[in-house]
Amino acid sequence: MPLDHQQLQQITRRTLAHYQASAEDFREGTRDHDVSQNIAALLRHVHGSAPLSILDFGCGPGRDLRAFKALGHQPVGLDGCPQFVAMARADSGCEVWLQDFLALDLPAERFDGIFANAVLFHIPSQELPRVLGELRASLKPGGVLFSSNPRGENQEGWSGERYGSWHDLDSWRRLLDAAGFEELEHYYRPTGLPREQQPWLASVWRKQ
Prior knowledge:
This protein has 208 residues and is an alpha/beta fold. It has helices at residues 5-21, 23-30, 36-43, 63-70, 82-92, 128-138, 169-178; strands at residues 53-57, 74-79, 95-98, 111-117, 139-150, 155-159, 162-166, 181-189, 200-207. The strands form 2 sheets. A 7-stranded mixed beta sheet has the order 3-2-1-4-5-9-8, with helices on both faces. The two termini are 32 Å apart. One of its GO terms (molecular function) is methyltransferase activity. It holds the Pfam family Methyltransf_23.
């Protein structure tokens, strides 16, 4: 059964409340995560040179905003958690927008690339086609979207106080293809481990 408006609002409120309450622990727990492989995967496919306009979608406390800025780019952050937005602004010095993922207000054709690291899986699958379309519209022609999500068998629901959708590669491809993206590459993380020990599916897509 499709989720109704009230259920979608509950998903947003409850998931964001979890991050709001645990923002400091989340920042400390993820501060040293090495996602340089993911940042490089986005940047090597973007046409052009620094400074590139990058949207860090679901930027959290701002770790990756700092990384993009240090590389000479012009990143903008976006998150739905007020505490994360405050942290990201203070820590990175970048522009950071407070927006609900299910009620986005994005400028048209603004960004060379979108970095969606460990975030799109929080969007209910029925809403993903619309959200992906909105992200696509905010990319410049030929712009690039990077996504990394915990992979699964296309199950969906609550994990503690957070809602998630866990897609396999075929499901993710169908969603992105339908949204008007062309696949550039995909890989599993962490690198160098057996597949059963690689819970993350990363992929890179170009706006068609």
